[in-house]
Amino acid sequence: MAALKAARRLDPPRLRIIGLAVLMSAVWIGMGFRLFTVQVVHAAEYTQQGIDQRVREEKLQPTRGRILDRNGDPLALSIDGVTLYAVPQELDDPVWVAQQVAILTGANVDRLRSGLADAIADGTGFVYLARQLDPEVAQAVIDADIGGVYSVKEPKRMYPTGQVGAQVVGVADIDGNGLEGLERVYDDVLVGTAGRLLYERGARGGPNIPQGPVEKIPAIPGDDLVTTIDTPLQFAATEACQKAVDTTGAASCWVVAYQPETGEILALTGVPSYDPVARTVVGGGTFSNAVVREQYEPGSTQKLITLAAALETGAVDLDTVIGNVGDKIEINEGACRSDDDDIRGCFGDSEKHETRDMTVQEIFTRSSNVGTIKIASLLPEGAIDLYMQRFGYGRPTGVDFNGEASGQISVDPSCSTCLASAAIGYSVAVTPLQLAAAYGAVANDGVWVEPHLVSDVGGDRVDVESKQVISENTARVLRILLEKVVEEGTGTEAQVSGYTVGGKTGTSSKLLPDGTYADDDNIASFVGMAPIDDPKVVVAVVLDSPDFSLRFGGLAAAPVFSEVMQTALQRMGVTPDAVPG
């Protein structure tokens, strides 16, 4: 009987109910476990995933600092541009979108199609369509309200002086990173600090949830630079260089104008150059700055250093007579023939003349190689090498510009012809800026001042180094010699109306790869200062490969010097000092 009752209690309907109860209990237990896992064990992880899906972070680009000239006029500045971008997954028809954006902005449609296709294939959630557009151009796309296409403000770098200022200012890339020139040297100052914008996005990706959280950390603009450059003088120097290239057929022309008392570079330019906006070379130019980076054998402009060493050591004075100065001189048994000046050990003057006695002043004024070599032979051993180092040869000047060359000193005591070569500007190499700074020491009563391009960084003045390299009296005597060169010597084309001027011509044959010198390829140069009693400006001019008939520094480079110096003195407000003749 008891067994029968038990069987009734376990009949199929009851078993189904029991089974269903057990199953439901298991389901509820499983759901509870799952809820516990999601809401407790992995709560932080899933919360972060939700935030990542809804919240977008955008980098806010800082406005890059301005680069100004000494007058406060802009050489480089950033203006508001508009960048267009797409969220590929939100585009209904990427090909159509590419066509519309190309039509409205002038962008390359093939590049847009390819970029969108690659982004979709890679699963990229963001792709640029066009960057740093003028606002009115971008507005046409914004007004078209193309789904999946968005816009954001992005600073755009502008260079108002174009290629005239390019060799100083340099260039920054589209992301605002300095690549060349002052843009690169002072990149950490100019760049500023990026900000960020956090917002909760809607279904179409835009910040369109009204009550969604927003966090904005503003970008901090970069600091401004105030340079030493005078833009009108920079323009004038560039035009003078271009005219010289057109007139002489030179491959290039480079000019630097420098204040000897302060070390401030007033102009630094050359042709050919490059366009900093298009980032392309102009007229065969390069992105390199030859005034700072290109070194060459200075030729006769080096004679000022040789005379400085001779005067400082007491080897000569202005009236010292050097005997038997001919148009040729033989060193180390080098054979000299009238039809061949290239034999090792043979040095000669550019013009033939009778052998005679000459004073130091006449030797310098007439730029006699033979006389200068004879003066150098009177110096103590190692004196020329020492004074070249004092004047800054063989090491960078320290100018605030990237890639500066150090020059080269090659006075080997065991080389019997090296002293003679160095005395007249061969077997040594300088940059135009090194030479300008060396002449600046003579202009500044013997004090060499470090040249620089920036005077103020974010409101803080820039400090520069200076050092006494020769005595004040020697500097004064050298200026007398330089004045004679312009008055009656090889540099008469360098004269400046209303001012007394001193300077030195240079003509050097170009060194060939095989170690010999070219017969018909030269570098012509002129370096000088004014007013001569109290020089306020030093200008150096270098022309590469002028026509052989105009190869001399007095013909090719001196006129450029005269034009640039005239503008520089007027721009600096220097009172004329020449007595009308």
Structure description:
With 581 residues, this protein is an alpha+beta fold. The chain has two domains: 57-227, Penicillin-binding protein 2a (Domain 2), CATH 3.90.1310; 231-571, DD-peptidase/beta-lactamase superfamily (Beta-lactamase). 36% of the residues lie in helices and 24% in strands. Strands 2, 3, 4, 5, 10, 22 and 23 form a seven-stranded mixed sheet that branches. Strand 13 and strand 14 (280-282) form a beta hairpin. The chain is elongated and about 145 Å long.
Count the beta strands. 27
* Average pLDDT, all residues: 86
Going by CATH, the architecture of the largest domain would be: 3-Layer(aba) Sandwich
Number of folding domains?
2
Any low-confidence stretches, pLDDT <50, length ≥5?
Answer: 204-208, 338-343
**Class by alpha and beta content:** alpha+beta
Which word captures the global form? elongated
Helicity level: 25-40%
**Percent of residues in β-strands:** 15-25%
Q: Calculate Rg over CA atoms.
A: 37 Å
* CATH hierarchy, class of the largest domain: Alpha Beta
Q: Which topology of the largest domain does CATH recognise?
A: Beta-lactamase
Please give a handful of descriptors for the protein shown.
Beta-lactamase; 581 residues; 27 strands; seven-stranded mixed sheet; alpha+beta; 20 helices; Penicillin-binding protein 2a (Domain 2)
Topology (elements, then pairings):
Layout: H1 2-9, H2 12-41, H3 43-54, E1 55-60, E2 67-68, E3 74-86, H4 94-105, H5 109-122, E4 127-133, H6 135-144, E5 149-158, H7 163-169, E6 171-172, E7 178-180, H8 181-185, H9 187-190, E8 195-200, E9 214-217, E10 225-227, H10 231-248, E11 252-258, E12 265-271, E13 273-275, E14 280-282, H11 290-293, H12 303-312, E15 321-325, E16 328-330, E17 346-348, E18 356-359, H13 360-365, H14 369-376, H15 383-390, E19 408-409, H16 418-423, E20 428-429, H17 432-443, E21 447-449, E22 454-457, E23 460-461, E24 466-468, H18 472-488, E25 502-511, E26 517-530, E27 537-544, H19 553-556, H20 558-571
Parallel strand pairs: 2-10
Antiparallel strand pairs: 1-8, 2-3, 3-4, 3-5, 6-7, 8-9, 10-22, 11-12, 11-27, 13-14, 15-18, 16-17, 19-20, 21-24, 22-23, 25-26, 26-27
Helix pairs in contact: 4-5, 4-6, 10-20, 12-15, 12-18
